[in-house]
């Protein structure tokens, strides 16, 4: 459950979010589209409380994002999986270590982590890349590793920032199937994307942003350039 | 609980890894810590020795107030009682004219005839003070000199004590300044070492926080790294200290045999323990604060 009410976020010279209000129900699947600089990434980062915002209110899983701190913030983030646009993989850690990180920080036993990593690498078709370092992977593979890391701890909310960027159409399709699969397990899923083919294919809810504002929000949307 | 243990194991492993990752820096920080703490401990030892010397000398140095022959005995008794209550005064002894004569005779047996000539006892009675704290001696002497109707003169074998006192005062101030400065330098070195390590891993810290790590989980390895640097440096310093003491103490005792040497084995042991504690606290607390800034994710 995600609810934003009149959310504003300004960087020094620009408004990244301008009076954004929207709500996404528990278990829902939605696309977030818009041109470069529309505010998609900023919105997702606000939802993870990676970025603060200037005004308005944000509720995720019933938690008031503006005021969550300390141990509560840690618990809050443990219920969210995020695929960062820039992947944020640790360069000095292998695929296995990167993907296992969310479980590692939760104090899971190495044995359990290894099993979960093997499982999720299977799902993301990365099983043979477990020992590689991120620099030894293609851009698309790195993105898949980022997705594997986002879902390994079984989050309630999955936020994906361009999960299929630089992934060829066939693999992109697989990724989307995987996202739908995870969504069907009850995970609220919000996907920021430029991939018109996928958006048009799936005929799901589409939220279109421009200049920090929500311009359109259609339950069965198509990709439009505005 | 199990999760905590798993996390702890990971934190320890990461700390060990962090220390090995940049051995030059780790060794540099350890050596600096060692040098700083040896200097610090040496200052504490010198200070303590000086204090003990002053106290020891103070015990020996009496203040002697010679009583007028015509002084009222009740007045003298009252003054003595008052002196006994003063802070810093150890013992107050009354030496009668007869006692004084006795002492004179014992000490200067060859000059008996001088007394025979005089026929009367020319030696005054006296009040003698043994001090616990020689610092109050000058003021006390002035006060007694003011009682001209009771005391004919007041003698303080003061110069040695006074000189030692001023040395010990200077060394106390200098020592305090040095302790603070050296602790600060040690803190600075460890904080910087850890800060460089933290900076190198700032992206990792950020990602860990974003995927749900607690502050403790992120901070733990750095705090342990700092503590290890501090404790290892301090242990080397403490061992050096104990060895130096074992070598030097007999020599020092021989040279200034008239003084009880302050740095006895017990003191050195305490100093060693203290040094290691300083290393531990400075290392861990310093690291704790080095990471803080990067935890605000
Ligand atoms: N850290 C920052 N400092 C200053 N301005 C920023 C920062 N991050 C984003 N912006 C600005 O905020 C606006 C929204 O950026 P955002 O990254 O949310 O866009 P986006 O929709 O994700 O774009 P893209 O499709 O290119 O990823 C842009 O104008 C961008 O320049
Ligand atoms: Mg973006």
| Unreliable residue stretches of chain B | none
Which strand order does the major sheet of chain B show?
2-3-1-4
Q: Supply the CATH architecture of chain A.
A: 3-Layer(aba) Sandwich
Largest sheet of chain A: 6 strands, mixed
Radius of gyration of chain B: 31 Å
Strand content of chain A: 25-35%
Do you know the CATH topology of chain A? Rossmann fold
What do the pLDDT scores of chain B average to? Answer: 82
Give unreliable regions of chain A as ranges: none
Rg of chain A is 17 Å
User: Span from first to last CA of chain B?
Assistant: 26 Å
Shape type of chain B: elongated
Number of DSSP strands of chain A? 10
Number of E-state strands of chain B? 4
- Structural class of chain A, please? alpha/beta
- Greatest interface: A-B, 23 and 21 residues
Draw up the topology in text.
The complex is a heterodimer of chains A (226) and B (297).
Chain A: E1 2-10, E2 15-24, E3 29-33, H1 40-47, E4 55-60, E5 63-64, H2 70-78, E6 80-83, H3 95-105, H4 110-123, H5 139-151, E7 157-161, H6 169-184, E8 188-192, H7 196-202, E9 205-210, E10 213-218
Parallel strand pairs in A: 3-8, 3-9, 6-7, 7-8
Antiparallel strand pairs in A: 1-2, 1-4, 4-5, 9-10
Helix pairs in contact in A: 3-4, 3-5, 4-5
Chain B: H1 2-21, H2 23-60, E1 63-67, H3 73-85, E2 89-95, H4 97-107, H5 112-118, E3 126-131, H6 137-145, E4 151-155, H7 159-200, H8 202-210, H9 215-255, H10 265-295
Antiparallel strand pairs in B: 1-3, 1-4, 2-3
Helix pairs in contact in B: 1-9, 2-7, 2-9, 2-10, 7-9, 7-10, 9-10
The complex binds adenosine-5'-triphosphate and magnesium ion.
Adenosine-5'-triphosphate binds at residues 11, 14, 16, 34, 36-42, 85 of chain A.
């Amino acid at each position: 459950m995600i609810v934003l009410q009149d959310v504003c976020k300004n960087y020094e010279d620009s408004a990244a979010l301008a009076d954004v209000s929207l709500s996404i129900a528990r278990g829902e699947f939605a696309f977030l589209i818009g041109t470069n600089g529309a505010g998609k990434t900023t919105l997702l980062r606000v939802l993870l409380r990676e970025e603060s915002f200037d005004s308005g209110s944000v509720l995720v899983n019933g938690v008031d994002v503006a005021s969550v701190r300390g141990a509560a913030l840690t618990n809050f983030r443990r219920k969210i999986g995020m695929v960062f646009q820039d992947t944020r993989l640790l360069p000095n850690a292998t695929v296995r270590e990167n993907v296992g990180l969310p479980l590692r920080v939760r104090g899971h036993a190495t044995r359990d982590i290894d099993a979960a990593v093997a499982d999720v690498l299977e799902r993301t078709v990365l099983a043979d890349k477990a020992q590689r370092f991120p620099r030894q992977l293609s851009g698309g593979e790195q993105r898949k590793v980022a997705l594997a890391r986002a879902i390994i701890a079984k989050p309630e909310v999955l936020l994906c920032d361009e999960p299929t960027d630089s992934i060829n159409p066939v693999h992109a399709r697989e990724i989307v199937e995987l996202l739908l699969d995870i969504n069907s397990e009850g995970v609220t899923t919000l996907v920021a994307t430029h991939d018109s083919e996928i958006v048009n294919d799936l005929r799901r809810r589409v939220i279109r942003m421009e200049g920090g504002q929500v311009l359109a929000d259609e339950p069965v949307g198509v990709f439009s350039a505005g | 609980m199990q999760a905590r243990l798993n996390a702890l194991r990971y934190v320890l492993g990461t700390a060990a890894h962090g220390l090995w990752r940049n051995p030059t820096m780790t060794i540099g920080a350890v050596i600096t810590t060692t040098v700083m703490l040896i200097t610090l401990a040496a200052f504490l030892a010198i200070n303590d020795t000086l204090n003990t010397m002053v106290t020891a000398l103070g015990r020996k140095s009496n203040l002697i107030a010679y009583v007028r022959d015509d002084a009222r005995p009740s007045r003298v008794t009252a003054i003595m009682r008052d002196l006994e209550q003063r802070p810093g005064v150890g013992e107050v002894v009354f030496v009668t004219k007869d006692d004084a004569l006795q002492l004179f005779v014992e000490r200067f047996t060859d000059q008996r005839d001088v007394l025979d000539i005089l026929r009367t006892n020319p030696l005054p009675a006296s009040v003698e003070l043994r001090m616990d704290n020689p610092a109050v001696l000058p003021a006390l002497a002035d006060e007694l000199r003011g009682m001209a109707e009771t005391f004919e003169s007041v003698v303080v074998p003061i110069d040695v004590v006074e000189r030692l006192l001023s040395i010990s005062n200077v060394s106390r101030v200098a020592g305090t300044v040095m302790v603070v400065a050296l602790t600060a330098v040690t803190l600075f070195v460890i904080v910087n070492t850890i800060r460089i390590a933290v900076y190198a891993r700032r992206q990792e810290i950020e990602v860990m926080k974003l995927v749900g790590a607690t502050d403790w989980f992120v901070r733990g390895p750095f705090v342990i790294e700092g503590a290890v640097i501090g404790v290892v440096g301090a242990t080397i310093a403490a061992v050096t200290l104990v060895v130096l003491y074992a070598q030097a103490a007999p020599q020092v005792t021989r040279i200034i045999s008239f003084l009880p040497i302050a740095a006895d084995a017990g003191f050195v042991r305490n100093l060693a323990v203290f040094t290691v504690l300083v290393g531990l606290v400075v290392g861990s607390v310093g690291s704790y604060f080095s990471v803080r800034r990067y935890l605000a994710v």
